[in-house]
Design a protein that fits this description.
mainly alpha; 11 helices; 2 strands; about 65% helix; about 5% strand; extended
Length: about 230
């Protein structure tokens, strides 16, 4: 509202203060309000997620005999709600959805059934993930918005690489290895890796040589038994 209407805008911060990011202590004060679970908010999240999800399943079953064109949009919406179900499942695994651990375990078990994920095993495995994953490159929202497209791509790739220990064992992907992978068509049971047709030809020659060796040894032995002499 303009000043002549009786409203004075708040004074703007100096450039040095406006560009300054909050310190760790300030961040802790900012997020402290959101560190404690709320029973009524958690209950409302369950209601506005599970009730529409179950209703969509009922409607999809009802309209399945009418037309697929009616079912597909509902299935897409149900898939989006299922993602919310997994988010609730995830927070229960952290013990942060309800104040009660028992309520978290019961809700996590039920939502785990809906997402086909065993709750107690996933909670144990996920705790290992958080215990063994650290020192990650983490941008603030402002840093991400101000970064270039390639910086965002590198950031997302780095986060994906460190998301699971098995990803950290994967060698870096280059143009050379990408082109080389086009020749991989066969699985070698002994080497436990993909190989190309050249390796297959080498294996075929080795197998043919192994089959010919006994016959050659038998011919040499027969020749020697008949009084012949084989020179190297």
């Amino acid at each position: 509202m303009p000043a002549h209407l009786g409203f004075s805008p708040p004074p703007s911060l100096p450039p040095t203060q406006a560009a300054r990011f909050p310190s760790v202590k300030e961040w802790k004060a900012i997020v402290a309000e959101y560190q404690h679970p709320s029973t009524w908010r958690a209950t409302w999240q369950l209601v506005n997620t599970l009730v529409p999800y179950v209703a969509l399943w009922f409607l999809m079953h009802h309209f399945l005999s009418v037309s697929w064109w009616l079912v597909v949009p509902m299935a897409m919406l149900a898939g989006a709600l299922l993602a919310r179900v997994f988010i609730i499942f995830h927070d229960c695994g952290h013990g942060s959805f309800f104040p009660s651990r028992l309520a978290n375990d019961i809700t996590g078990f039920i939502t785990g059934l809906l997402t086909f994920t065993p709750y107690h095993h996933w909670r144990w495995e996920h705790s290992i993930h958080h215990a063994s994953t650290g020192d990650l490159w983490t941008m603030t929202v402002q840093e991400y918005l101000e970064s270039s497209r390639w910086q965002r791509f590198a950031y997302n790739l780095e986060r994906c690489h460190h998301s699971r220990p098995v990803f950290q064992q994967v060698k870096p992907l280059t143009i050379r290895t990408s082109l080389k992978s086009l020749a991989y068509r066969l699985w070698d049971e002994n080497l436990r890796k993909l190989v190309g047709y050249r390796h297959m030809r080498e294996v075929r020659r080795e197998q043919a040589a192994a089959k010919a060796a006994p016959a050659k040894d038998l011919a040499v032995q027969t020749f020697e038994n008949e009084g012949g002499h084989v020179t190297a």
